[in-house]
Batch of 2 targets.
Target 1
Amino acid sequence: LGVTVVVARVSRYVLDVNRAPDDVDREACPEIERPARPSARGLCWRTTTEGAAVLTRPLTLLELRSRLARIHAPYHETLAALLAERRKRFGYAVLLDVHSMPSLGRPGHSDPGSRRADVVPGDLRGTSCAPALSKLVAEHCKGRGLSVRPNDPYMGGFITKHHGRPAKGIHALQIELNRDLYMDESTF
């Protein structure tokens, strides 16, 4: 279809490209000069959403910087370059940041135990893309019989916040797809 696809081939347990480069807490990297808010699931996840340990030990500052230089920076530089090229070519660019989500909210989420919509378009409450784009996606999905709940429980993350500049012709929309649309969550 002529759509460029960028795939993060590194698990978010190694480095989450949908987190800010400074979203690191002291438990994940004790040497960090200015830790972000305490978070077990920041740039370098310490625990899974179920609470299981991910890191066997905290990262050194050198290890953290290496991951940022090898994974985070190239990923976002590639996105920025692609978006700039599309904007120059077409006058605007659209970034669809596609994720999957569990069908039920998990403990520690804003919606524990709640059934989630089939599709959650997240536009940071109208700030990362033109409202018409969010509306188009929602109407498209509803027209195919899917339930849609914009910005609930996910509004968008670092990718949409960092790259979405609708006033400059760069629109970013995070789309969360409910996993039970395409897989058995108990057996994967």
Target 2
Amino acid sequence: VLAALGDFFGIPPFYISCVLAPLASNASELVASMNYAAKRTKSTITTSLGCLLGAANMNNTFCLAIFYGLIVCREGLKWTFSAETIVIVGVQVVMFFFAYQSTMKLWTAFVVLSFFPLSILVVAFLESPIVGML
């Protein structure tokens, strides 16, 4: 479906799936986190942030494991995910440091939110003819 949507709009399927798949697969975590945060207590906001961090970490680690498993188990499968893998690992390393802060400030939310569009731009840059990392 995501590939067909990308073909219809003339956008590579990776960029469509990078935006829509996380929203669809994490909808329950997003709703639960919003409900926790709406209570506006220290413990519920901490729970909300913990749920979001856990879901993001689990999804990124799981996707990397699937990529690596496919390459190892399927002979002849060409690896074309270098840019995506570099960005996923890079964001996870940076998020490790944000997750271990004892107090979350409002400005960190904007920095963390910027990782999503920035990672798409970095993948596009790494796969561009200038860099040519396919």
